[in-house]
Write a structure and sequence with these properties.
2 domains; Rossmann fold; binds fe (ii) ion; six-stranded parallel β-sheet; alpha/beta; globular; Hypothetical protein af1432
Length: about 375
């Protein structure tokens, strides 16, 4: 009996981990064929700004030398929204043998919101690829699957380095190197076709920040974007706030007309307030929530909005940060409880300032009082 797996996704764009997963699936599931299938429009994502043809062409380049892989334009040709249940039923009826469907483990918790999950599972077996186990609670998902559908999923092990299409898009937008993330031919294709270019905000950031700070900014954007949906925030606002949060890090406040540094403001806080001023007065941002997310990303304040909290937290846990306890904070951020992660970050920040005997801004004290102390009193 022939064994076929479908590897669907937006592939916007394809990256090295996709290739590693495909190879791993072929080996671990003993496949005769792996069908790589870009969606026309992913039901769970925004209408893609990159055309289906570009995504398809990049997949052809990425998989040209991988045996047993066929890149299919079935969903693209079909047009409209790509629903997995229709695709798996089509292939189950056309092909003989056993069918598997690969999904990123991060999709498991949303599987119940897919159209007709029972029909999907009666046509195929779901195979989740492990992405380092950092973002998914497998035990919980397994229990949910068995309770809801009476059928388990297969977990493929060892997906290689954790990579993401978001990372390639954000890095490319900021002019950072993407050659370690996707094959050279794909990098060349992105360049030649002018894909994933930035807007006026990323252009401003590119001119204002050195390479190291650009990488940090990209990482904050990526971390913040991982949470916008769960927190019910607007993706565009999250992206702009994260992109601009450190825009004034290398600007001397004395050179900015109309901005004066309050005498009680500790030096590390200044760039956040100056950044908010620049976003408002030089970049024409009128949305107060975005401006406040930039202004309070270092100090925090009482009654921070969800967006403010997200940027504050993403700034502290982004992938490039190295300090004791950061791994634990990342786990909280991705896996369990955003609010607990935020308050823990606030405590860390306070402890750090106390240890270093640095002055503490009154807004930070207010934030601590409001989010940590009040919570502790409530919990007692
Ligand atoms: Fe900052
Ligand atoms: Fe930052």
């Amino acid at each position: 009996m022939e064994r076929t797996a479908i590897f669907g996704g937006s592939f916007n764009p394809v990256h090295n981990e996709h290739i590693a997963i495909a190879k791993m699936a072929i080996e671990q599931l003993k496949l005769d064929r792996l069908i790589v299938m870009p969606t026309y429009i992913a039901p769970h994502k925004d209408a893609s700004s990159t055309s289906a043809e570009h995504r398809f062409n990049m997949l052809k380049l990425a998989f040209e030398k991988v045996e047993k892989v066929e890149v299919s334009d079935y969903e693209i040709k079909k047009g409209g929204t790509s629903y997995t249940y229709l695709t798996v039923e089509h292939f189950k009826n056309t092909l003989n043998g056993e069918l598997f469907f690969l999904v990123g483990a991060d999709m498991l918790k949303d599987f119940k919101t897919w159209r007709y999950p029972e029909r999907i599972l009666s046509a195929c077996t779901l195979c989740a690829f492990d992405r380092g186990g950092e973002t998914t609670d497998y035990q919980l998902e397994r229990q949910n699957f068995i309770n809801n559908y009476g059928k388990d999923f297969i977990l493929l092990k060892g997906g290689g380095q954790k990579q993401s299409s978001t990372k390639i898009r954000v890095y490319n937008e900021l002019g950072l190197d993407i050659t370690l993330q996707t094959p050279k031919k794909v990098c060349d294709y992105i360049k030649e076709n002018g894909l994933y270019l930035g807007d006026k905000y990323s252009e401003f950031i590119k001119k204002s920040l050195p390479q190291k700070r650009l990488v940090h900014t990209a990482n904050v954007v990526i971390s913040a974007l991982a949470k916008y949906k769960e927190l019910g925030l607007d993706k565009r606002k999250v992206r702009i706030s994260a992109m601009l949060h450190d825009c004034a890090k290398y600007i001397d406040p004395k050179t900015v007309e109309g901005f004066s540094v309050p005498s009680d403001m500790p030096a590390p806080v200044v760039h956040a307030f100056l950044g908010a001023f620049i976003a408002k007065n030089y970049l024409g941002i009128t949305d107060e929530d975005i401006i406040n997310a930039i202004r309070y990303h270092t100090s925090g304040r009482a009654k921070m909005s969800a967006l403010e909290k997200l940027i504050f937290t993403a700034d502290m846990i982004e992938d490039g940060r190295v300090y004791e306890g950061v791994e634990q904070l990342r786990k909280l951020f991705y896996l369990t409880d955003f609010d607990e992660c935020f308050t823990t970050c606030l405590k860390e920040e306070m402890q750090h300032l106390l240890n270093k005997k640095q002055p503490i801004y009154f807004e930070t004290l207010n934030a601590y009082e409001y989010f940590v102390k009040r919570k502790e009193t409530k919990d007692e």
